[in-house]
Write a structure and sequence with these properties.
Distance between the termini: 108 Å
Largest sheet: 4 strands, mixed
Number of strands: 9
Strand content: 15-25%
Oligomer: single chain
Order of helices and strands: HEEHHEEEEEEE
Strand order of the largest sheet: 5-8-4-9
Length: 185
């Protein structure tokens, strides 16, 4: 019966015998079976690439959200710095220092838990990235530029400087310059 079916599906086109490749007939050398694994491999590769792209997008999204939260926290802490300065001045000049000191300590602890840190200044080497020199003085005992006095505290959050410390810098005395006089920048 199979040979009769083959005979029925053959046609003559321009003198050549052509067989009709019917999808209902099983054929061991069907070209579609050989192409299918290639298509599957391509699809698998595309799926893997899409998955990798999605993972990269998700990681970048989480990273951007964390950076945005850090920037927002830094802005809030920056806005609180004048309040800290005023509070500290009130503690120094208040009659009832004990109560204000306790409140100030609680405030600074809460801000430290949010990442706020005072920039080390007095007695430290002058660092123009962390300190803003208001004035310099010559000091015969100084071997390099050192912060002698702090006018306004500086603050940072992690590696991000929120506000530089305003400082007086002591520098080594230069030859021929009068000693002990202020040198304005």
């Amino acid at each position: 019966m199979n040979s009769e079916r083959k005979a029925e599906t053959e046609e003559v086109l321009d003198g050549e015998v052509v067989q009709d490749a019917s999808p209902n007939e099983p054929d061991g050398d069907n070209g579609a079976e050989q192409e299918a694994p290639v298509d599957v491999r391509k699809l698998q590769d595309e799926i893997l690439r899409a998955h990798a792209d999605y993972q990269t997008l998700a990681r970048n999204s989480v990273k951007r959200q964390a950076e945005a939260a850090t920037r927002a926290k830094a802005r809030v802490l920056e806005e609180l710095l004048p309040l800290i300065d005023s509070f500290e001045a009130a503690v120094l000049h208040s009659v009832d220092q004990e109560g204000l000191q306790l409140l100030f300590k609680q405030l600074t602890q809460a801000l430290q838990q949010q990442g706020l840190a005072e920039v080390p200044a007095e007695g430290k080497p002058f660092d123009p990235r962390m300190h803003e020199a208001v004035t310099t003085i010559e000091d015969p005992e100084a071997t390099n530029e050192v912060v002698k006095e702090v006018f306004r505290k500086g603050y940072a959050m992690g590696d991000h400087l929120l506000r530089p410390a305003m400082v007086v810098v002591a520098k080594p005395a230069s030859e021929g310059a009068p000693r002990g006089e202020d040198v304005r920048e």
